[in-house]
Design goal:
Helix content: 25-40%
Shape: globular
Distance between the termini: 36 Å
Number of strands: 8
Strand order of the largest sheet: 1-2-3
Strand content: 25-35%
Number of helices: 4
Structural class: alpha+beta
Largest sheet: 3 strands, antiparallel
């Protein structure tokens, strides 16, 4: 792991894992709130995707946003928001032009929150009925924001 000293006593720690995943920790002295962000290079403008062993495939517009919604869904009786609340944390997702982020905020239990965040993103609950219901919600959101120049690419 390497680090860089920044202004105001801040330090940025960086580590690249063998699988290519990069982890960054920004230490901000005096702050109590801690954020854990997992970013995926798949955003609202991505309509082609490279699959290992398959090659390039076309994906429908809005796929990144749809997946961010689907990841918030859980099996019946479970609630991802409650799982994070039990750790004293909250969860949010945002889809941008070329990236989708999953962010958890906490004032403690950071390692547990990071573990939950990684588990949440890497173990999706995807079933056809849920995917269709969520697709309709995302399509409605897209229609709602189509006239908003801040939302459009």
């Amino acid at each position: 792991m390497s680090y860089s000293s920044l202004i105001n006593g801040e330090r940025l720690f960086c580590h690249r894992f063998a699988n290519g995943l990069r982890a960054y920790i920004l230490e901000k002295p005096g702050y109590k709130r801690q954020l854990a962000t997992l970013a995926v290079r798949f955003g609202s403008l991505d309509i082609k995707h490279e699959l290992i062993g398959v090659g390039q495939i076309d994906v429908p517009a809005g796929s990144a946003h749809l997946l961010s919604h689907l990841l918030l869904e859980e099996e019946e009786g479970e609630n991802v928001f409650q799982r994070f609340a039990n750790l004293g944390a909250s969860i949010d997702t945002d889809t941008f032009k070329n990236i989708t982020i999953f962010q958890a905020s906490t004032c403690g239990n950071l390692l547990e929150v990071i573990t939950e965040l990684i588990d949440f993103v890497h173990r999706p609950y995807l079933i056809p009925e849920l995917t269709e219901k969520t697709r309709k919600i995302v399509e409605h959101e897209i229609r709602t924001y189509q006239g908003d120049c801040r939302w459009l690419g």
